[in-house]
Amino acid sequence: MSGRGDRGDPQLLLVSGKGGVGKTSVSCAVALKEARAGRRVLLVSTDPAHNLGHAWGAPLGDEPRRVLRDAGHVDAVEIDPALTVQRHLRTVGETLRRMLPERMHAPAQQHLDLAREAPGTHESAVLERLAELVVGACHPSSAYDVVVVDTAPTGHTLRLMALPERLTSWTEALLANRDRSERFGAALRGLGAGEEHVDRDAELRRVLLRRRDRFAALHELLVDPARAGFWLVTTAERLPVAETQALHTQLRALGIPVRRLLVNRRSPADGAVLTARRAVEEQHLAVLREAVPGVPLTEVPLLPGDLTGETALAALAEHLGG
């Protein structure tokens, strides 16, 4: 993987796959490898079942914390879904209270309380925080060279990846409606309407523009093969391989590049049982290679012990290739 010293812009790597295949360990090993090469790395987890902190042996939260100092360094963040939703709704509530007449404050708050548990609220809030972190860290003037995202399992990740383009289009439609409303409002002001309505419209437009631009920047980054790409982590078993094929197909449909397949925990060919298991694994990998041609495939052997701490992550990093 390349850092700023090679391309001039920070790079984004997203590590994804079926639950339980080792995405977090691979994400941490990639971050460690980049830091040892002298790069400044931001490592972000969007998985509700966070394990970054366990891997590094350090408590993590919603703000970056330094977990490794080497030739470069690694700062890690575990996006807190509950905190993200709370902050998201608090910001929306403050905006609504500024824009709405006082008699509407209580109904608006009731609506936000219901929205807290509504379908899609979690994904939208996490995406907002992810966009804030990633777009900021991938700006040419940022303090980072590489951003590594340890994603949630496949289904959650696909919903998250589809959202930036959808929310950008949705916000564009709202802005078009606001434009029509403002033209109507201008006519009303010519008839003597007050300025309070004008201020509320202007503030709403600023909020919508800021949100649109953030999501549009994230989508633009995700579909840029020169700057971003996915690593799909799997094991050489039927269900993980099938899910990896489906994930690859859906990411391609979204225009998001896949840079590498990484097959984790390959069995050694030692003894009758393991030799037989490895032969079955070869059959599954043959299916994967045929279904996903043209994407480099890296095999990582089954390693001893728990993959936690710098020493164990460094051992994994040695098998990741260039």
Automatic annotation (TrEMBL):
Official protein name in the record:
Arsenite-transporting ATPase
Q: Which InterPro entries match?
A: ArsA/GET3_ATPase-like, ATPase_ArsA/GET3, P-loop_NTPase
| Provenance organism | Nocardioides marinus
Q: Which Pfam families match?
A: ArsA_ATPase
Residues spanning the signal sequence: none
Q: Please state every residue range assigned to the domain named ArsA/GET3 Anion-transporting ATPase-like.
A: 12-320
Q: Which family does it belong to?
A: Belongs to the arsA ATPase family.
One MF term from GO for this chain? ATP binding
